[in-house]
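Please, structure for the following, as tokens.
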Amino acid sequence: MKRFALLLSSFVILHSSFAAEHRPNILFIYADDWGFGDLACHGHPHLKTPNLDRLAREGTDFHQFTVCNPVCSPSRTAIVTGQYPARHGVHQHFAGHAENVARNMPDWLDPKAPLLPRVLKEAGYATAHFGKWHLSGGGMDISAPLPAEYGYDDAAVWTGPSRSVFEGTSVEKMAGDAHDKVGASFQTTAATEHALRFIRSVKDKPFYINLWLHETHHLVSATDEDKKEYPDTAEPQRTYYAAVTRADKQIGRVLALLDELKLADNTLVFFSSDNGPENSQAEPGQKLYHSVGTTGGLRGRKRSLYLGGVNVPFLVRWPGVVPAGRIDKTSVLSGVDVMPTILAALDVKAPAGYQSDGINVLRALKGESFKREAPVFWEWRGPHSQEADWPTHAIRDSDHVLLHDETFARVELYNVITDRAQQQNLADKQPALVTALKSKLDAWRTTLPTPFKQSGARTPPDKPAPAAKKATTIDRAAVFKRWDKNTDGHLTLEEYTDGLAKKDDAPKRFKAFDKNADGKLSADEFTNSPR
């Protein structure tokens, strides 16, 4: 009997070890401001996206996937928490402390929140985040938590804390932020190199990697070499197309490595975008001149709750599980579904007490019969600078989307299956449905925390910091320690610049700190300066 028990115990241990080793890897590729129409496989007549087209061909292309907010930080918050960003006080993109306070936002996503990377790390996954971060603000008045506190074993980023994405790459000399013409042309290349290196280093254990691209956020830029792909295309399209194709090539490098290491069949790959395309500007020299992405005929763009702002590409490949070459035009999927679905696919338990706003949509991924029962909700507290940006709240329930403004004076209702372009407002024709959807939307709003408070915020969002005391919120000693990459006790101009969110006047600000004009900042100079 004892021998049988011992054999049974050994079998359980071996089975558990085998199951852990054969859990699929996860690669989540998240683009920035990349519109639904910015893919050749979505009908774009000029763009070359052969690697994304390959993903669609070898997996399933979901046309009814929406993100949970029409801008960056809240959209990303939903992906990694499986909860609506409003639950975490994330309503717009993270910025400097004063701007976050004005928006009733914390300075960063609370690392104590339920987080996909932490859950997977605890389940034995190697975890990494390479590329854009933007789950915290920028600026010297913020000392944000590092990615390690969110559950990542490795990270290299821009628009956030941690080492620069350029550090240790072949394009390190091209370092710059997302608004720098040179830097913007090489950020995704740098992030991809980190991802390739990480995959090689952990290839014998399951991994979860976020590869969050720069493209096609402004500044949209391209090198002369990039532009050779489109020799006969006029500006501003030439630069935009070249940037898209450059990003597609980097995705191709990762797919090729998965093939080389024979990991492709056991890797669940996602490609999506954080929101719809940016609104372009007409004049050369304007910062959004090259932002000419397309929604594929959907109404609205970035910052809009019309589908053009939130209905983005969603390609999923998992050979043998997700059907190849399938286009799904009916399954209603949301950004908050990503975490519960990945946990279900991996047979990993959610944290105790965790309640996702999303649902497990693995049936849809597998190509099985799927009908969403739960509504999808949106909240937009940002500016209304474009006509299409007017909605502040929206709900999708089955085939219908209801949108309304702050006062409920303007209401629109669309059947987005028969009227995907949202041209036929049905509100006057179906008042009972308007009332029913509004009731569900109002009920959802009552579940949101108000006023929001977060333990990591410098100041409770509902109590703006007095201007005279603003300097006391800056933990410059912590900032200095984080920016001092080589730990030599000094900041070079390069280290100082890398740490800044806005780098335009970095040399001037550096000089103001450098009291003895020796070209480097001591901890005392940096910490005790009145600036």
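The chain has three domains: 22-374, 377-445, 475-528. Residues 4-20, 452-474 have pLDDT under 50 and may be disordered.
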